[in-house]
């Protein structure tokens, strides 16, 4: 999976509110903001990465059924919601 990373750390600071507005204004683009000030632009999910995520979720779900530790969500659900953990 190819990502694009923009390093703003030396000349621009993006706070949480600005990052959230940027995400809201660009709903078709998946962004990540690192602690080092980088803005990562993620590509849409494809078959290979989706299969990997499905396998991980299956393993977690099976483990959680035995341990009853909580709820399992996919990464995209977590990113696109206001889940309070």
Task: Kindly summarize this structure in a few lines.
This protein is an alpha+beta fold and 85 residues long. 42% of the residues lie in helices and 15% in strands.
Please give the structural blueprint:
Blueprint: E1 4-7, H1 16-25, E2 30-33, E3 38-42, H2 47-67, H3 75-79
Antiparallel strand pairs: 1-3, 2-3
Q: Compute the separation of the termini in Å.
A: 28 Å
Which overall shape is indicated by the principal axes computed on the Cα atoms? elongated
Q: Please write the string of helix (H) and strand (E) elements.
A: EHEEHH
Taking all Cα atoms into account, the compactness measure Rg is 16 Å
Given helix and strand content, the structural type is: alpha+beta
- List how many beta strands DSSP finds: 3
**Percent range for β-strand residues:** 15-25%
Spans of 5+ residues with little confidence (pLDDT < 50)? none
- The mean pLDDT is 77
Number of domains: 2
Please count the helical segments.
3
How helical, in percent, are the residues? 40-55%
How do the strands line up in the largest sheet? 1-3-2
Major beta-sheet overview: 3 strands, antiparallel
